[in-house]
Write a structure and sequence with these properties.
The protein is an alpha+beta fold. It has helices spanning about 1-25, 25-60, 65-105, and strands at about 110-120, 130, 145-150, 150-160, 165-170, 175-180, 185-190, 200-205, 220-225, 235-245, 250-255, 265-270. It has three helices and twelve strands, in the order αααββββββββββββ.
Length: about 280
């Protein structure tokens, strides 16, 4: 009987030794082991991502010719719209440059756009982070903002040789300063506790008392440019609720984020041309 008890307790005893051993390991060793594991698993992550892309390509080959023709027509319409938008953007950039010259304003910090494919997304951290298929091999820096067509995605928190980790805007660990569109007073935004596959939401604090929002009369929240990470004017989400806070000086509220954040396949990293 004692031998049976000893055999039953042996796995727990071994686990306890491992936990105690890990706790006494120096921080430098833990950091090295974590970085080494991240680099070793990067090729597997990239290979899995490429295999998924190939699977999507072969799935598209199963569509009928009529469906492909219709998709080609839709793509042609989108290309025409984008070409017109590019022309408008070029004209607006020229006007901004002329105004900066007339008013002797310093030029706004430029970014290099680096498009990247999403390589991995963990179910346990669906709204916390993603891994993209570019890293130091494309000069991706830690802290770089990440965006998509709907606005802010998050910021780069870890960079490896071939991959990088992006902390999502839906994560409670991410905070940034925003403003209501058309206003200049900063508001604190933070990601919320979002369930996996649920609608993404965030929270706001220090909302001015004269700002009113409801599900039927939302307020668009955009980046303020404060903090030097995100350029101003990027969409964060829609404020759907603003109630008086406990201090009575500001309001607290909820922000509805873009649902496409849950199905990202491509993102764009804004790499600063002048990091200093």
């Amino acid at each position: 009987m004692p031998f049976r008890r000893l055999a039953t307790a042996r796995p727990f005893f071994t686990l306890g030794l491992v936990v105690v051993g890990w706790l006494v390991v120096p921080i430098a060793v833990k950091t090295f082991l974590r970085a080494s594991f991240f680099e070793l698993t990067a090729p597997v992550t990239i290979a899995t991502s490429y295999a998924g892309g190939a699977q999507d390509v072969w799935a598209l080959r199963l569509h009928s010719q009529g469906e492909l023709i219709e998709a080609g027509r839709d793509l042609t319409r989108l290309n025409s719209s984008y070409e017109f938008s590019v022309q408008q953007n070029t004209e607006l950039q020229g006007q901004i440059a002329r105004l900066e010259g007339l008013l002797r304003l310093p030029p706004f910090g430029d970014y290099r756009l680096e498009h990247a494919r999403v390589a991995r997304r963990e179910f346990s951290g669906w709204w916390q982070r993603i891994v993209i298929r570019k890293g130091r091999n494309f000069q991706i820096p830690v802290g770089a903002p990440v965006v998509f067509s709907g606005g802010v995605v998050g910021r780069v928190t870890e960079v490896g040789a071939l991959t990088a980790v992006v902390e999502l805007i839906t994560s409670p660990n991410l905070r940034l300063a925003g403003v209501v569109e058309g206003d200049t007073r900063p508001i604190s935004f933070q990601g919320g506790l979002n369930p996996t596959f649920g609608p993404p939401r965030g929270i706001v604090e220090f909302v001015p008392l004269d700002v009113f929002a409801s599900p039927t009369a939302t307020k668009r929240l955009v980046t303020s440019g404060l903090g030097g990470v995100f350029p101003p004017g990027l969409t964060i989400g829609e404020i759907t609720k603003a109630d008086l806070g406990p201090d009575g000086l500001f309001k607290n509220g909820e922000v509805k984020l873009d649902e496409r954040l849950g199905s990202l396949t491509e993102v764009t990293v804004l790499v600063p041309l002048n990091p200093e």
